[in-house]
Amino acid sequence: MIRNAIVPVAGLGTRLLPATKSQPKEMLPVARKPIVQYVVEELVANGVGDILFVTGRNKASIENHFDSDPELVRALNNTNKTDLLQEVQFEELNANFFYTRQRQQRGLGDAILCGQNFAGEQPFVVALGDSILGLHGRSKTMGRMMQLFEERRASCVIAVEEVPLDQTQHYGIVQVAEQCEDYCRVGNLVEKPKPEDAPSNLAIAGRYVFSPLIFDLIRRVQPDRKGEIQLTDAIQLMCEEGKRVLAVKLPPGECRYDIGNFPSYFETFVEFALADPLYGEAFRETLKRLVRD
Ligand code: G1P
Questions:
Q1: Distant-in-sequence, close-in-space partners of 164: CB < 8 Å, separation ≥ 6
Q2: Is the CB of 235 under 6 A from ligand 1?
């Protein structure tokens, strides 16, 4: 049973300025919740309740969001807004939140290394704090990844999604060594290759399950041109050492919502708002009118 997750949220969010000038991109709302809340709910739904956020400067609002707020609770109680009260009482999630800081922007691999003492000798999940899997964060992928990790005694299981071939330079891309039922064994990985150098169009989709072996491999990775330690390079070392690295494709109907830039943020917001049980229908009418005019 995997209980621990590392959620890196230290990125500067420069592609979302000015919205992210003084607030973390992970706190941008998508319909009614901030992005990071969907990520936490996905983890908790999979029994992963000990969650370490690797933060940076300007990320305090993430900590505040999951903390209790007695004044707000009192105000909602006094006005009988019990339905809203339920929405903000994260104690009920049965999760423990931990926080540490990545002091310098040295890449995703370095951010994960900040969680080494937290993870200890146990396997753990990594969930990128700016990616939501599945509409409203309802995803089957992580459960399957954890199951495979244990059943196949893997060292790493990655979620992957198909992307258009001309987009490979935005993602870590995997090369399939052997195709099995609904997963594959990974032979090699390359971080953000040009389309002509990409070994496939299967992109790493922001969710990983790792054995603690990964920490030693991250330490061996050389910084890239930008001085960043790439997590993908550490997984490549894992492959080179003959360890079992598996990839699970997001099942049909499930996609990854990447909140890294404005076009995908707008699209995600609209899709989630349209599916909102309370406001979705009225919003659909508004949207139709706006598109018509
Ligand atoms: C990171 C990873 C990349 C992965 C992507 C989306 O890149 O380095 O391998 O495909 O997340 O999950 P970033 O978007 O942080 O540049």
A1: 201
A2: no
Question: pLDDT of the chain along its 293 residues, tens only?
Answer: 899 999 999 888 889 999 999 999 999 999 999 999 999 999 999 999 999 999 988 888 999 999 888 888 888 888 888 888 888 777 778 899 999 999 888 999 999 999 999 999 999 999 999 999 999 889 999 999 999 999 999 999 999 999 999 999 999 999 999 999 889 999 999 999 999 999 999 999 999 999 999 999 999 999 999 999 999 999 999 999 999 999 999 999 899 998 889 999 999 999 999 999 999 999 999 999 999 87
- Determine whether domain 4-292 maps to CATH 3.90.550.10: yes
Q: Provide the residue type at 277 as one letter.
A: P
pTM across the whole model: 0.94
Cis peptide before 8 (omega within 30 of 0): no
Kindly report the protein residue whose alpha carbon is nearest to atom 15 of ligand 1. Answer: 108
Q: Quick one: tokens of 246?
A: 């598996």
For residue 188, is it left (φ>0), alpha (ψ between -120 and 50) or beta?
Answer: beta
Q: Which sequence spans correspond to the domains of the chain?
A: 4-292
Pocket test for ligand 1, best of 204, 232, 235, 245 (most atoms within 8 A of CB): 204
Residue 256 CA: nearest ligand 1 atom is 12
